[in-house]
Amino acid sequence: MTTPPPGYGPPPGWDAGTGSTPPTPPGYGAPPGSPPGQGAWEQPGWGPPGGPPQTSTKAVIALVCAISAYLPVIPFVGAIVGVILARIARREIRESGGRLTGEGIATAAFWVSVVHLVFVAALVVLFAIAVVVFGAFGFR
Length: 140
Fold this sequence. Notes:
The chain is mostly helical. It is 46% helix and 3% strand. It is built from three helices and two strands.
């Protein structure tokens, strides 16, 4: 066995003859009757109040709808659903007191949907202008 360097004392309970420490009394972490090696937070039914924060499901669904708006499957409806769900999700996340996360996902879903809706509106305006211009000159 090696001895500790000078200036450091042996750890409490160190027996220089055997090189071991006496058994420690039960600590603060494990509840009575739990298997050795498990802390209080690892026990079923034990944990921080409310559990770990969860990502908002509505925020994730809003992002999926916003991205799917760019696909030919649900081009315009997905963006509208994305905007609505993103607004609802952001409000729920703020009101949850830290229980829900995902405000960045909801914000991304909102802006992806808004960009799509602006793009669609611009295409509709350009199409209307084209109909008026080419209809006025009698192109067939």
